[in-house]
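Hi support team,

I submitted a single chain yesterday and got back a structure, but I'm not sure I'm reading the token output correctly. Could someone confirm the output below corresponds to the sequence I sent? I've pasted both exactly as they appear in my results page.

Thanks,
R.
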Amino acid sequence: MDHTVRPNAGSQDTAKRNRLRIDWILIGFLLIAGYFLATEHRAHAVQYLPLLLLLLCPVLHLLHNHGGAKHDGDHSTTRHKENDHA
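Hi R., thanks for writing in. Yes, this is the structure output for that exact sequence:
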């Protein structure tokens, strides 16, 4: 068994715990700030919801076209093959 003491092992654990505490404090602060921001400015933001919906339509249209199923060619060739059998 190796009982070698690593001098940095304790300081690394302390640094990780400090970082974790800082992250939780930051998350809590952002949640509280976001809550107050939303409640205080709700009256101002509600009037822009119809405009936001209109502006969101082209963005969703672009994302839908680029993220959809990929087609391997022209659909007109498959239509001609179906019509030839009739």
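A quick pointer for reading it: The chain has a mean pLDDT of 78. Let us know if anything else looks off.

Best,
Support desk
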